What we know:
The complex is a heterodimer of chains A (about 110) and B (about 250).
Chain A: H1 8-29, H2 36-56, H3 64-90
Chain B: E1 8-9, E2 12-13, H1 19-54, H2 56-64, H3 68-93, H4 97-127, H5 140-143, H6 151-167, H7 171-208, H8 218-242
Antiparallel strand pairs in B: 1-2
Helix pairs in contact in B: 1-7, 1-8, 2-6, 2-7, 3-4, 3-8, 4-7, 7-8
Amino acid sequence: MSEHIVSWKVYLVIFVLLMVGTGTTVWAAFQNFGPFNIVIALGIATIKATLVVLYFMHARYSPRRTQLVIVCSVFWLAIMLALTLADYQTRQPRESRLSPSVVSYHA
Amino acid sequence: MRECRVHRTGDLFGQFQTLEQQKETAALGMWIFLATEVLFFGGMFLTYTINRHFYFTAFGIGSNTLDIKLGGFNTVVLILSSLTMAMAVWSAQTGKKKLVTGFLIATLSLGTVFLGVKVIEYKQKFDHHLIPGHGFDMTYRSSHPTPADDPREIAAEKEEVEKAFASDLDTNAHAQLYFSLYFAMTGLHALHMIVGAGLLVWLIKESFRGRFSPQYNTPVEIVGFYWHFVDIVWIYLFPLLYLIDRHR
Lengths: 107, 248
């Protein structure tokens, strides 16, 4: 069979990288980066998820049509998140929009 | 009983030409299922994001009641179980039949450890009156300390909760939103783990019969996809639920 066999060494390297990512996430959470805390946390999580998909789940060595399904799933997720958040940002009464001043809602 | 005959040569089902084509087809089907799972969990993450924007303070104090040591430990355990799952696939592909069984058992054990730690965490939330419903009280733990609690930690929590109530009178209501989402998201994740554990039991049984070889290892690969997906969900859940507002 001509399928690509990923070596156990590659799996081990990816595991170490995932551990480093986990450590970095915990460290970063205790620093004050202001609004960038969440960006850093989600950024690291996305890098870790990408490593899992590419190597543990063999996406890098999969046929093009499988890769297309993976890209589509992320794209549909992006549509759902972007359009719903845009809705909350623009269609609600002004006081309850996604902004830091919304705490006045029950005053 | 009706007899069901499928044209089949060894592990190769009649509608496929080669084992490789059969495996690629199964993998594609699994990825399509995982695409629906991405959107299923995506809806929960979306609900979380919107509520966290509206009630950031309440979500912050709710998140800080979670035990970061248990959460971090579980993250390591789950990523390690993904490694052993990937190694099981590698063992099958290289024809090491005994190793396949060993790595599958390791994966199942680590998955069980994860669920056990989750039980401990849920129990703590029951003890601290942090289950959404009538008994919910964000101030309960800091006003009812037990001898086992660290007094400094209790004092810090008390101050934090008082500050939250000062800025938001409905802190209890809004913190319940956080805990509802916490239990829904981690519960759904745990349910996926239980299903995965069931699939692993089946794989282990088959591997004892020497079913998985370099020619035929599709079930190990496909269950592996599922297991890694559940790992990815946790990779997002851990920072979003445990690490919202840790810097103070």
